[in-house]
């Protein structure tokens, strides 16, 4: 019934079918089919399909990457969506190549050569930090960790923050431009990154000492990037006990550290903690970067 309605031009049915192809529900996951159907749903006036189409075009999910096309969809949204208008304005202020990459590699400061820990001062602007925080505000959920036995996310008192994530269908042009800046700074492919997350630590919340590597994972998290998004809170330092290093950046400062040795073995020296926030709330963007791209294309 859904297929028939979609074939007959029903935009809502095309959106439902696209979602199934995106997730693999009721069949095989097919990102090319999902992209085509999200496009048909958007063209048919189905509002929720429009930002998804923007994300697919920006990231090249399900087809060739089309940065100008993504910007055109964002401009369309900006005409009636205040948040989209803010994102469009932030993108206009970014010095980008025609393909959406930074025109220059961000400045870096080496904090530790071995193990590798790097600070990128002012990687994001204060306005970009505020725009990202605003985008995340409505989507916070309790944070999880990966169960080493099942490999699935689970709640655990080791991590008591809240999190809002931007997976494929939510990685619009603004978020994607920030991800490409992170990739340029770290010398990685944007496709190696897991979805960007915004973490919120309220009073008393923390992340106990841990490593960011995944258990029994061939495509390992080789690199972590953290970007401070706000100030005006107390506590909440990022602490590396083995390095005797505690850090608390200004809004927009980014920290990158390599989680594994050259052999791919987890580097225990990069065990780190998000210390408890004692007053106010800390906002932090986080992106885990794998050894190889997560998706082809």
Note down, in words, how this protein is organized.
This protein folds into two domains: 2-92, Serine Threonine Protein Phosphatase 5, Tetratricopeptide repeat, CATH 1.25.40.10; 109-290, Sandwich (Jelly Rolls). The model has no long low-confidence stretch (mean pLDDT 94). The protein is α+β, with helices and mostly antiparallel strands. The chain is built from eight helices and 16 strands. Helix 3 (31-43) packs across helix 4, helix 4 runs antiparallel to helix 5 and helix 6 (82-92) packs antiparallel against helix 7 (126-136). The strands form four sheets. The protein has an eight-stranded antiparallel β-sheet, with helices on one face. A four-stranded antiparallel β-sheet has the order 8-14-11-12, with no helix packed on it. Helices cover 31% and strands 22% of the residues.
Instruction: Work out the strand percent.
Output: 15-25%
In which order are the strands of the major sheet placed? 1-2-13-9-16-7-6-3
Radius of gyration, in Å, reads: 20 Å
Measured between the Cα atoms of the first and last residue, the distance is: 32 Å
CATH topology of the largest domain: Jelly Rolls
Biggest β-sheet strands, sense, barrel? 8 strands, antiparallel
Shape: globular
CATH architecture annotation of the largest domain: Sandwich
The top-level CATH class of the largest domain is Mainly Beta
> Which percent bin holds the helix content?
25-40%
Structural class: alpha+beta
Q: Give me the count of strands.
A: 16
Q: What ranges have pLDDT less than 50 throughout 5 or more consecutive residues?
A: none
Helix run count: 8
Order of helices and strands: HHHHHHEEHEEEEHEEEEEEEEEE
Mean pLDDT score: 94
Number of structurally distinct domains: 2
Q: What's the CATH H-level superfamily name of the largest domain?
A: q2cbj1_9rhob like domain
